[in-house]
């Protein structure tokens, strides 16, 4: 179940803007203007439990049948490493259900379909260590 999130609070994506002026409008149906904006809004959707948004912004060729955002993972922070063209490289700090801290590093690819950006796929950036506590120096964004 998605969490209600006050529009005046800081956006979970780490942009420094309020949710109502950042990812909130995208979660309400506004199109993302850039791949980075879509990636940030998807991170915020994971953090807030908006599974429908995650699926709706995933390209149908690579979209899973469902996503389970109720496993107890906590989203601690996001850092965008690089955003250029249709790609966004990021590091997300997570706390797994067992309490272990984990850094997810991904180089994501986005495509435009009918004027809307969609997440196509992603892979670990070359040389990235995604093991527990790898990159813990990045901390929450």
Secondary-structure blueprint of this entry?
Elements: H1 23-27, H2 35-48, H3 51-56, E1 74-84, E2 87-95, E3 101-113, E4 116-123
Antiparallel strand pairs: 1-2, 2-3, 3-4
Write out key terms for the chains shown.
141 residues; alpha+beta; Nuclear Transport Factor 2, Chain: A; four-stranded antiparallel sheet; 4 strands; globular; disordered C terminus
Task: Provide a compact summary of the structure.
This protein has about 140 residues and is an alpha+beta fold. It has 3 helices and 4 strands, in the order H-H-H-E-E-E-E. About 30% of the residues are buried.
What does this structure look like?
18% of the residues lie in helices and 29% in strands. With 141 residues, the chain is α+β, with helices and mostly antiparallel strands. The two termini are 25 Å apart. Strands 1-2-3-4 form a four-stranded antiparallel beta sheet, covered by helices on one side. Residues 34-122 form the YchJ-like middle NTF2-like domain. InterPro entries: NTF2-like_dom_sf (IPR032710), SEC_C_motif (IPR004027), YchJ-like (IPR023006), YchJ-like_M (IPR048469).
Q: Count up the domains.
A: 1
What's the end-to-end separation, in Å? 25 Å
Structural class: alpha+beta
Rounded mean pLDDT is: 90
CATH architecture: Roll
Question: Could you say which overall geometry the principal axes of the C-alpha atoms support?
Answer: globular
Rg over C-alpha atoms, rounded to the nearest angstrom: 14 Å
- Spatially, the strands of the biggest sheet line up as 1-2-3-4
The level 1 CATH classification is Alpha Beta
CATH fold description: Nuclear Transport Factor 2, Chain: A
Largest sheet: 4 strands, antiparallel
Order of helices and strands: HHHEEEE
Task: Return residue spans where pLDDT drops below 50 for at least 5 consecutive residues.
Answer: 132-141
The fraction of residues assigned to DSSP E strands is 25-35%
For the secondary structure, the number of strands is 4
Please work out how many helical segments DSSP would assign.
3
Q: In which range does the helix fraction lie?
A: 10-25%
Family: Belongs to the UPF0225 family.
Protein name: UPF0225 protein CBQ26_06330
InterPro entries: NTF2-like_dom_sf, SEC_C_motif, YchJ-like, YchJ-like_M
Organism: Deinococcus indicus
């Amino acid at each position: 179940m998605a969490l209600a999130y006050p529009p005046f609070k800081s956006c979970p994506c780490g942009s420094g803007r309020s949710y109502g002026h950042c990812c909130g409008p995208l979660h309400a149906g506004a199109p993302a203007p850039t791949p980075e904006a879509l990636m940030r809004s998807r991170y915020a959707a994971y953090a807030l439990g908006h599974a429908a948004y995650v699926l709706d912004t995933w390209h149908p060729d690579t979209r899973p049948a469902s996503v389970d955002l109720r496993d107890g993972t906590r989203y601690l922070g996001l850092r965008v490493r690089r955003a250029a063209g249709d790609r966004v490289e990021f590091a997300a700090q997570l706390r797994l259900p067992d309490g272990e801290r984990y850094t997810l590093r991904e180089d994501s690819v986005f495509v435009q379909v009918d004027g809307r950006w969609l997440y196509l796929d992603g892979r670990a950036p070359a040389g990235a260590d995604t093991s527990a506590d790898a990159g813990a120096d990045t901390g929450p964004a």
